[in-house]
Amino acid sequence: MSEKFDVIVIGAGPAGYVAAIRAAQLGLKTACVDAFVGKDGKQALGGTCLNVGCIPSKALLDSSKQYYNLAHNLPAHGISVENAKVDMSTFIGRKDKIVKQFTGGIGQLFKANKVTPFFGKGKLLKGNTVEITGSDGSKQTISATNVILASGSVPIELPFAKFDGKYILDNAGALDINEVPKRLGVIGAGVIGLELGSVWNRLGSQVTILEALPDFLSVADQDIAKVAKKEFEKQNLTIKLGAKLTKAEIKKNEVVLSYEDKDGAHDLTVDKLLVAVGRRAYTEGLLAADTGVQLDERGRIKVDEHNHTGVDGVWAVGDAVRGPMLAHKGSEEGVAVAEWIAGKAGHINLDTVPWVIYTEPEIAWAGKTEKELKELGIPYKVGSFPFAAIGRAVAMNEAIGQVKVIAHAETDRLLGVHMVGPGVSELIAEAVVAMEFKGSAEDLARIVHAHPTLSEAVHEAALSVDKRAIHKGN
Ligand code: FAD
Ligand code: NAD
């Protein structure tokens, strides 16, 4: 007889482990099955985000920023440091330590909340039974009234530039380079390409990013993307738009790339290549043929607005389903599903999920871009405010970028808030709260913001929607 649970979660990434903890908090007997193997060959909870995504990338971004600032920011403050060096084993080791701290922390949280972890590959069988195959090939089955699928995503591989872990790298490989490559090629000027490209660029690598689309960061508001591109280029990141890779060959410890753009065919030789052209839902070996769970045209698990698959007691959350592939989106879906299972009023609003890109300057937004509003035919008005006129940003010597607020032309309701500049990863939270409460630009404009803070840029941009910003012409 297989052990019976109220809830089994397959996948312990930020969607799955959060779902499991919330379900256990609600008194449900919960198991979580995960197959991720960490750098040390042992089971590591936390999925992509904690092991090879959000957390390690932010650790390296922060370390590389400290180093970059020594030469590029501190001199303006009258501080100079000579012969600064990066010790690569400390640089990578610090990141590994942080990863271990957080992945180990999930195990402790499971213990504290009485979630039973299982290590192995989980496969959903008909009737809400899960078969777990251990790393030694051993099999066991467990069953539950509800199963939550949270199998996450994996990087997309290009057929002519296959990952080899040495020269052609995915995100995991690019987080673990032990020596700064003299030349780094990056395919895809998306979130990973820009964040990890920035890490190695700051350490002195000559980074060239090839992006297939003609527009830079086409998912972001184009006013924001324009400022960001200009700043990245000042940092010596080379970004080639409309560039389509046709071949990547490893020759004598180098990667020779062939690509085409509007000017014709080109070659580029680099020491390492990061391929970051997006991620796809991971469902290999997850579903027995007769479960009834459907995949959509992009291979994602089909769900309704309550993350239900349509099969009795089977739910799916996180990167494996529609919506942005972001950790916080998956976690909130996990909480909502656990609450729905427990008969409570779960809540998730995909319209206000914030995006943050942790480059310098940072980029953040929530809601719709101007382009999206035009396509939807929604009338809008815009206010913006530059960090150059914000005292705190100038005092920090980081007076770059702007905040842009978009409100409905008639009702003034906030439709989108877009930012590029210092600390915007934190500032975006105010916009999300205001939008979640269906606030207006006038609401933001009438709220007292502390002086001198970066948040005054949000205040002034909201005032500027009604042409009454104080510290700029309107
Ligand atoms: P995952 O984190 O992918 O976890 C899925 C887990 O399920 C894995 O452990 C996998 O091994 C396991 N699994 C899959 N199938 C099975 C099975 N059949 N049996 C058992 N286990 C299984 N997002 C942000 O919001 N902010 C960031 O700053 C950010 N930075 C990122 C940086 C990088 C380099 C990358 C690659 C991603 C980043 N992301 C970021 C995206 C974020 O990592 C994902 O959105 C998030 O991890 C998705 O969570 P998830 O739980 O759905 O899936
Ligand atoms: P992405 O979708 O952000 O960017 C991929 C880029 O590659 C796009 O600009 C696309 O046009 C381009 N591209 C696609 N095919 C190409 C080709 N053949 N040649 C050249 N360019 C090509 O994907 P990503 O950077 O791989 O990241 C995957 C996802 O992980 C992100 O979309 C995001 O959901 C998540 N992530 C989030 C964060 C964060 O929140 N800060 C950080 C990293 C990753």
UniProtKB/TrEMBL annotation:
Q: Which GO terms describe its cellular component?
A: cytoplasm
Tell me its cofactors. Answer: FAD
The residues listed in the UniProt record as binding FAD, with positions renumbered to this chain, are K58, G122, D319, M325, L326, A327, H328
PROSITE patterns recorded:
PYRIDINE_REDOX_1
What is this enzyme's EC? 1.8.1.4
InterPro entries assigned:
Class-I_Pyr_Nuc-Dis_Oxidored, FAD/NAD-bd_sf, FAD/NAD-binding_dom, FAD/NAD-linked_Rdtase_dimer_sf, Lipoamide_DH, Pyr_nuc-diS_OxRdtase, Pyr_nucl-diS_OxRdtase_dimer, Pyr_OxRdtase_I_AS
Q: Which residues form the FAD/NAD(P)-binding domain?
A: 5-334
Which one GO biological process term can you cite for this protein?
2-oxoglutarate metabolic process
Per UniProt, subcellular location reads as: Cytoplasm
Which SUPFAM superfamilies does UniProt cross-reference here? FAD/NAD(P)-binding domain, FAD/NAD-linked reductases, dimerisation (C-terminal) domain
Binding residues annotated for NAD(+), in chain numbering: G188, A189, G190, V191, I192, G193, L194, E195, E211, G278
Q: Where is the active site?
A: H451
What range(s) does the Pyridine nucleotide-disulphide oxidoreductase dimerisation domain occupy? 353-462
Please indicate if the UniProt record lists Lipid metabolism as a keyword: no
Disulfide cross-links:
C49-C54
Free-text cofactor note? Binds 1 FAD per subunit.
Q: Which domain of life is it from?
A: Bacteria
Protein name, per record: Dihydrolipoyl dehydrogenase
**Which organism encodes this protein?**
Dyella monticola
Q: What is the lineage of its organism?
A: Bacteria, Pseudomonadati, Pseudomonadota, Gammaproteobacteria, Lysobacterales
